[in-house]
Amino acid sequence: MTVETRISDTRGADSSSRQEGPGGLWDSVKKAAFVIGSGILFLAAFGNSLTWHLQRFWGASGDFWQNLWTKLYLAFEGHDTALFYLGTMLIPSVAFWASNGLLLLVDITGKPSFITRYRIQVDKNNPVDPAKLRHAVKSVIFNQVFISGPMVVVCYHLMSWRGDPCGPELPTFHWALAELAIFSMLEEVMFYYSHRLFHQPGLYKHFHKQHHEWTAPIGVVSIYAHPLEHVISNTLPVVIGPVILGSHLSTTTLWYCLALVSTTISHCGYHLPFLPSPEFHDFHHLRFNQCFGVFGVLDRLHGTDTKFRQTKQYERHTLLTSFTPLMESIPDSPKKGQ
Ligand SMILES: [Zn+2]
Ligand SMILES: [Zn+2]
């Protein structure tokens, strides 16, 4: 505990001085490059033994996926464009609205209690304000249709020009895994810095304030944002990876679904068992000036999680592996509410 505190203290003092000048920012970027570089080295060193175990599992099911893809490929022969949009627009949208549909049922009705008992900000959205929700949903649909849609069309042209995103052969398991790791790192870097930029007072007022109208977020609010923010912070960090790597449609589809479902979870407002913890981004909505990234790596590096790490929310920021809500096992302190 002492070590932990000491690290956070140094980081706090360090970062407040660093955030000032442009030299400080450069220093931060160098540190980020160092961490990401180390990550790649780590993967290179231990990746083999890690993936060996996964490959054993994959070996049995690999043919199954390849056969499935071959069937789809033959069914759409000559209609690559349709196949691409099915995988990059339709399937990810279904994943988004299926998960959000379930969450919305809970948000609107305030039931069932076996879900609502996991609510992070207990007194909020119980039930959710219908007018506020309607406004958010309209904006989300606008962003999906008029921003994400056209951006995926651009991606299709870039990816087709670069290679064949709908090739007959699926990528190997190792390569798909490596791609997902690279996509995640790109997303963390691009989302963190663009998000912090949108928190600069001038930009915040005009663009990002909209997303922060929800101090207690719900799933669907994950892409409730000003269109410019939706382009730069939400969509670009996700779609850029597959374009750079010239990925196969299967990996791209999987990645878009993962990105949409994970941002839904991080906004959903319920810390449910056996799902990734949403505490980090929920805290960003509560406090505004903490926890800007996706995974938290860059926040640790830049000291933008120091206040978060002194809270109960940070203690609860783990994978819940039992059915006891963390609000019960780690209750708020009886004195002031943070
Ligand atoms: Zn958010
Ligand atoms: Zn923000």
What report would you give on this structure?
- 69% of the residues lie in helices and 0% in strands.
- With 338 residues, the protein is mainly alpha-helical.
- The chain has one domain (80-326).
- Helix 6 packs antiparallel against helix 8.
- The chain is globular, with a radius of gyration of 21 Å.
- One zinc ion binds next to helix 10.
- Residues 211, 217, 267, 281, 285 line the site of one zinc ion.
Brief overview:
One of its GO terms (molecular function) is oxidoreductase activity. By secondary structure, the chain is mainly α. The chain is built from 13 helices and no strands.
Notable traits:
13 helices; mainly alpha; globular; membrane; Fatty_acid_hydroxylase; binds zinc ion; 338 residues; disordered N terminus; 69% helix; single chain
